[in-house]
Amino acid sequence: MRNASFAALGLLAVMSVASAADDIGSIEACMRANVPRALQVKIFEMVATDRSGGTRTLSGRLYGRLDENRIEAMMRIEQPPDMRGASYLVREAEAGRGEDMFVYLPALDKVRRITGGMRDSALFGTDLSYADVRQIAYAFTDDSLRLERSETFEGRPVWVLSMSPDPDNALRFDRVLAWIDQQSCMVIKAEFLQEGAVRKRFSGSTADLAQSGPHWHLTRARIDDLQQQTHTELIITEVLSNQELADRLFNPRSFHLGP
What is the dihedral of CA 5, 236, 88, 170, to 10 degrees? Predict the structure, then answer.
């Protein structure tokens, strides 16, 4: 399950955009504008399945907010006991300066900054990676973003976008395709390609779209690593939007201490 990636955290949901024009600027602005001011996922589960069928379940909480129009997100694991307190923080920097990523593992009792090739490493032994949080949570904001086409997915109109990650980030994927539901503006499906072949896939269903106030989120999604023949299911319950969140949850010196 190593060197896998993730396209979830698109749970930083979005509002209806039926009137948005079919051009990349409008779509990108819509996705970006629909990120809630603050968000708390009171319970999430990640069920990781290895190639032999063995499973491991992690559960915890997720916090996200907009700070001066920049997205910050923090994930904290509460179960199983040997992972309790493991935490991950990603903070979007100023335009053109990427993002800052930090991880805390209780066994090491140390906060580590994630740089270079580490960004494509598996997150807490699942089919997620640190790098993919940016690609979806930041609503695919990127200079290489292109609108490939419009089509239908599960009977609903979607936009298909493509993005070419910055080669300087040392990621193993050279192209990403994302299917964006036009009603909710959510990423419903994404494929991560390497040398033209799909190596990893994120998939959700429009049937699993739900709302917290005016904002949409997926209640279930799945990440498949097609090379390793592993997968991780993400289950989201009780999402609260526009809640006041303490600054310490997004501070690299204190995020791992929790709420």
Answer: 20
**Tokens encoding 219:** 């209640």
Average pLDDT over the chain reads 79
- pLDDT value at position 80? 94
Domains of the chain: 24-241 (2.50.20.10)
Neighbours of 21 (CB within 10 A): 11
Whole-prediction pTM: 0.79
pLDDT the model gives residue 2: 33
Q: What are phi and psi of 256, to 5 degrees?
A: -70, -10
**Number of neighbouring beta carbons within 10 Å of residue 51:** 11
* pLDDT mean over 43-51: 91
CB-based contacts of 225: which residues, under 8 Å, 6+ apart? 1, 4, 5, 127, 199, 200, 231
Q: What is the DSSP string of 189-248?
A: EEEEEETTEEEEEEE--GGGEEEETTEEEESEEEEEETTTTEEEEEEEEEEEES----GG
User: What is the H or E stretch that residue 70 is in?
Assistant: strand 70-79
Among left, alpha and beta (phi > 0; psi -120 to 50; other), residue 186 is beta
Taken in order 93, 72, 183, 17, the sign of the CA dihedral is negative
The gap from C-alpha 222 to its chain's centroid, in whole angstroms, comes to 12
At residue 126 the predicted structure's pLDDT band, cuts being 50, 70 and 90, is confident
**What pLDDT does residue 17 have?**
32
